[in-house]
């Protein structure tokens, strides 16, 4: 222990006694439950539009329309609402569009005719 009048030596930093930097946290964190809810809502939305028509052509066009609307809602949710739900809706829309693309591709491959014209 140094004498009372001796100058104090600053700590070396090897064992810091207090936080030297602030901790920043996301004001609106994305939670797993919200992502799952958004994915479920997006899947139901695409399914509701996908069953409107019974042809591959109609299914593809309805899915594209429903996905475009869902992405606009997802952008709005990301800006003003819950980001987790926005991520879930966008992910479900991407998956739905991928499935529609596979259905169109398989139909084109098996029949030899492009189904969207």
TrEMBL record:
Domain of life: Bacteria
Keyword Transmembrane helix annotated: yes
Organismal lineage: Bacteria, Bacillati, Actinomycetota, Actinomycetes, Micromonosporales
Record key words, sorted: Membrane, Transmembrane, Transmembrane helix
UniProt keyword annotation of Transmembrane helix present: yes
Region: Disordered, residue numbers: 1-27
Biased composition (Pro residues): 1-10
Transmembrane segments: 30-52, 58-78, 85-109
Protein name: SPW repeat-containing protein
